[in-house]
Amino acid sequence: MSEVQHLTDGYMTEERQMMRDSARDFVANEILPVANELDPVQGDIPMDLRRKMAEMGYFGIRLPVEHGGLGLGVFEYAMLTEEIARGWMSCASIIARASSYMHMVNWPMEKRIELTEKAAMGEYLQAGALSEPDAGSDLFGSIKTRAVLEGDEWVITGNKYWCTFADGSNVINVLCRVGEGRAGVRTIAVEKPPGELPANCTGNPIPKIGYFGWKTWELRFEGVRVPKENIVGPIPGESAPGGAEGKGGGKRRLAMLSVPRVHTAARSIGLARGALEDAIQYAHERVQFGQPIADFQETRFKLARMASEIEAARQLMYHVSTEIDAGRGSDKEASMVKWFASEMAERVTSDALQIFGGAGYTKLHAIERYWRDARLTKIFEGTSEIQLRIISDQLLGKPTSRNQS
Ligand SMILES: Cc1cc2nc3c(=O)[nH]c(=O)nc-3n(C[C@H](O)[C@H](O)[C@H](O)COP(=O)(O)OP(=O)(O)OC[C@H]3O[C@@H](n4cnc5c(N)ncnc54)[C@H](O)[C@@H]3O)c2cc1C
After folding, report:
1. Which of 126, 130, 264, 379 to mutate for ligand 1's pocket (most ligand atoms within 8 Å of CB)?
2. 111 and 135: one domain?
């Protein structure tokens, strides 16, 4: 793959640059060929590739060194996510499934540490079952899946929709209603063997149009039972346990809201860069009217605009990541970069496809994958409209109609 130089001053230490360069090589040699082979046939990310990604440390970028992670910050996480998404978005997504959320579950410390160490090796990965058929953007207001405490167990009943990796994960974090109002909506960890759905849970893959490499499921929870300790945060009716947020909770809570948005921005930027680099190469190769299409001003200006948009998104991502690493609140800025980068990625991948002409509208080039996957970045982790709602609420205050409800 050809490389497009980008601005690095101000953020790039030598160490970061080396990490980025080795990721770039890894993606070109290990991820891109697999993506080009498996995405067109909707194949899953192979275990062998997952193992290689684990050896590179990608599952443990932000996990503590003493538990097998790299102990790095959101900046490095975003920077490496961009690199991986340049190859295959689902590989950039699966690294986010190894987080330290288990420290918020009421499990004994030994279990939490053991799972963190496994997560850092990519051997304990999560799925998230938040969305439901009638609960999308308005998750907390519309959620219907219920968990009821029966003795020492939660019994979970309800329908979930869009649960990516429900089959391959080691645990599904299920958003459930356990009581009234917003505070009554809680996450419960449902552990299970990878390759299976939990006992008393059935489901089917949804026929999505992209984001291949793993499946996305509709699920029916029909009396799924888990120990009461599996709830995230305090167990209702009991005093605060060690598993609740604990030291540094406020900082972690802020990061929990912002990091997935920055991660999605990084995925968008990686996709857009892939499209730009492929389009530049194609523009040099494709000859019409006796000259490479790269000589036509319209092509040149299109590519210039695409590169500028990518760089603007990247610099905002670097800024927001640096702010989060410094422990500063950046909720609004995280929404800004998620919105800006995902909208940019759709435009840029579409322009890149245009440069390919008819060839772009085939499965013979990776450009269609970047375009299809970029389209999703405007929808998941909060749609573009929801990001604009968050930003405008912070600029203007909530509208009167919503304050009254
Ligand atoms: C491929 C894929 C994978 C996914 N993986 C997961 C997963 O692993 N786990 C999970 O829980 N979910 C997952 N999702 C679900 C995703 O998070 C939701 O699709 C997303 O939150 C939007 O919800 P919705 O689809 O129900 O859209 P809706 O909420 O129904 O929105 C429909 C439209 O209305 C707009 N809208 C809604 N409310 C407002 C408002 N207040 N103001 C302005 N516009 C508004 C939206 O922006 C959108 O354009 C996945 C989705 C896809 C497509």
Report:
1. 379
2. no
User: For 2-52, what is each residue's pLDDT tens digit?
Assistant: 555 555 557 999 999 999 999 999 999 999 999 999 999 999 999 999 999
- CA 329 vs CA 98, 256, 257, 259, 264: distances in Å: 23, 11, 10, 11, 18
Residues 382 and 253 in one domain: yes
Rounded CA-CA distance 118/120 in Å is 5
State pLDDT tens for residues 86-140: 999 999 999 999 987 888 999 999 999 999 999 999 999 999 999 999 999 999 9
| Pairwise CA distance, residues 363 & 28, whole Å | 19
pLDDT tens digits, one per residue of 181-222:
888 999 999 999 999 999 999 999 999 999 999 999 999 999
Same structural domain, 395 and 258: yes
Buried b (16+ CB within 10 A) or exposed e, 277-313: bbbbebbeebeeeeeebbeeeebeebbeebbebbeeb
Would the CB of 11 count as within 6 Å of ligand 1? no
Residue nearest to atom 43 of ligand 1 (CA): 385
Residue 318 confidence (pLDDT): 97
**Model pLDDT for residues 61-70, shown as the tens digit of each residue:** 999 999 999 9
For ligand 1, say whether the CB of 389 is within 6 Å of any of its atoms: yes
Q: Tell which one of 167, 190, 383, 391 to mutate to probe ligand 1, the residue whose CB is within 8 A of the most ligand atoms.
A: 383
Does the Cβ of 225 fall within 6 Å of ligand 1? no
CATH classification of the domain holding 75: 1.10.540.10
Q: What is the pLDDT of residue 101?
A: 82
Atom index in ligand 1 nearest the CA of residue 382 equals: 21
Final residue before a domain boundary, out of 162, 197, 230: 230
Q: Whose C-alpha lies nearest to ligand 1, atom 27?
A: 136
Average pLDDT, the chain: 93
For the record, the structure tokens of 229 come out as: 């300790």
Domain encompassing residue 175? 126-230
Give the residue, by CA position, lying nearest to ligand 1 atom 14: 162
> Do 248 and 325 meet the contact criterion of CB atoms below 8 Å apart?
no
Residues classed as catalytic? 381
Count of domains for the chain: 3
Distance (angstroms) between ligand 1 centre and the Cα of 378 equals 9
Domain CATH for 277: 1.20.140.10
> End of a domain among 93, 120, 147?
120
Query: Is any atom of ligand 1 closer than 6 Å to the C-beta of 35?
Result: no
Please say if the pLDDT value at position 234 is more than 60: yes
The closest of 214, 188, 179, 182 to 130, measured between CA atoms, is 188
Ligand 1, closest atom to CA 175? Answer: 11
Same domain? 322 vs 256: yes
Give residue 5's pLDDT. Answer: 53
